[in-house]
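Inverse folding, one chain.
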């Protein structure tokens, strides 16, 4: 049997960073992953450029049954700390929008950074490792792996959520939490596109690829001002991904398709100058032409000139375009979701160390915990912050 001080399960963002930090603090660390290579989600992230943090990281950008839980770790290891680390590794980055920081070159650089940090900490990394069972006794945690038996005083679960099973996601962390008597909140795909019911989908499918700025509101009042994208299955784009975290099946979302322009004022001004202009061509000045065409087939946009448009028609049209109510059929689910809502109940963990209060030596970090960030680098920042906080206690 091989003995270590710490065993970490999951060589994703949180596991790699925690392993590196604990190793550099002198702990003998074994890092296990079921995949062929470490950090697979990092490599896929941010369109291959990894949106590794957000300048405006704040606990308010995280969903959890316990909104206070993330505060301590986010304050102790901040976005500025991770930016410092990125700078020390000479990785060039840029802000794309809304404080979202991306590598100029490739997400591979972030994985290389984490691997170098692990090497500095003499971390033992074992890939293609399956954990067959975990037992706890007075010596700590003993694990049967596909390649032998390992033991450590401390066990860190960094096995992530359920999104993208193709990238190695498993319910391991949730099951292990339950094995040791911890509560796990039901999980749900988040940061995920909406699917639409027929016949609306049939009409909107022709818009696949069309994107426009929107303001989108969930039934609970949560608002995001970001772009929306029509897809062949329904709706996507940052506004939709963000709102999906706040949406429950059966609920409507309200979409302002023209947030920058008061359409009532715009139509009145246009009518004054060009009364014989078609409504369709008028709206095409401020909205995608293909969208107007589809809205005409849906009878939202009447086939009239501006002088023919009566005030009832105008107010109905303006109300629909500024407050388009759509009832999604569902989401695309874990197959395409970026993250998983729910997970290990934080009231049972120390917000300072991530250790289970009633199970000494057992820690949960990263996405397996019931802390889920907005789109925009917030989820990686949670991975770094929770991993760092945990590593200080190992
Ligand atoms: P993960 O990174 O998922 O790592 C978990 C690891 O555990 C994996 O390597 C997995 O193989 C391993 N594992 C699972 N089960 C087992 C088991 N039974 N035995 C052994 N190993 C196991 N967030 C951002 O902030 N910015 C982005 O740009 C961004 N882009 C994303 C793009 C995509 C396509 C996806 C899917 C997610 C994206 N995210 C992004 C979210 C972000 O990737 C996750 O929140 C983050 O990776 C969570 O880190 P983690 O270490 O907790 O889990």
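Residues assigned per position:
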């Amino acid at each position: 049997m091989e003995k270590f001080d710490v065993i970490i399960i999951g060589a994703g963002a949180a596991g790699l960073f925690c392993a590196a930090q604990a190793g550099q603090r002198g702990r003998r660390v074994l890092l296990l992953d079921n995949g062929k290579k470490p950090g697979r989600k990092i490599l896929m992230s941010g369109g291959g450029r990894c949106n590794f943090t957000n300048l405006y990281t704040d606990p308010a950008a995280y969903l959890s049954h316990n909104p206070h839980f993330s505060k301590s770790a986010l304050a102790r290891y901040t976005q500025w700390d991770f930016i410092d680390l990125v700078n020390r590794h000479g990785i060039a980055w840029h802000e794309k929008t809304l404080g979202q920081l991306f590598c100029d070159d490739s997400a591979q650089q972030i994985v290389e950074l984490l691997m170098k940090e692990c090497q500095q900490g003499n971390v033992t990394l074992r890939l293609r490792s399956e954990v067959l069972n975990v037992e706890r006794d007075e010596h700590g945690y003993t694990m049967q792996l596909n390649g032998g038996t390992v033991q450590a005083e401390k066990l860190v679960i960094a096995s992530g959520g359920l999104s993208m099973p193709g990238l190695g996601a498993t319910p391991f962390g949730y099951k292990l939490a339950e094995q040791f008597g911890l509560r796990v909140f039901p999980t749900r795909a988040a940061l995920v596109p909406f699917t639409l019911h027929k016949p609306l989908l049939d009409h909107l499918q022709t818009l696949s690829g069309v994107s426009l700025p929107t303001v989108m509101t969930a039934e609970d009042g949560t608002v995001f001002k970001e772009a929306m994208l029509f897809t062949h299955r329904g709706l996507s784009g940052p506004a939709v991904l963000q709102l999906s975290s706040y949406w429950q099946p059966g609920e409507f979302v309200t979409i302002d398709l023209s947030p920058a322009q008061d359409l009532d004022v715009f139509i009145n001004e246009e009518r004054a100058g060009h009364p014989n202009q078609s409504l369709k061509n008028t709206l095409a000045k401020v909205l995608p032409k293909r969208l107007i065409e589809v809205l005409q087939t849906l009878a939202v946009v009447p086939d009239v000139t501006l002088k023919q448009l009566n005030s009832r028609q105008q107010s109905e049209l303006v109300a629909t375009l500024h407050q388009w109510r759509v009832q999604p059929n569902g989401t695309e689910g874990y197959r395409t979701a970026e993250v998983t809502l729910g997970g290990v109940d934080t009231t049972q963990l120390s917000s300072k160390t991530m250790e289970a209060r009633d199970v000494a030596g057992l820690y949960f970090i990263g996405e397996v915990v019931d802390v889920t960030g907005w789109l925009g680098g917030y989820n990686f920042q949670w991975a770094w912050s929770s991993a760092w906080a945990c590593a200080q206690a190992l």
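The mean pLDDT is 97. The chain has 13 helices and 21 strands.
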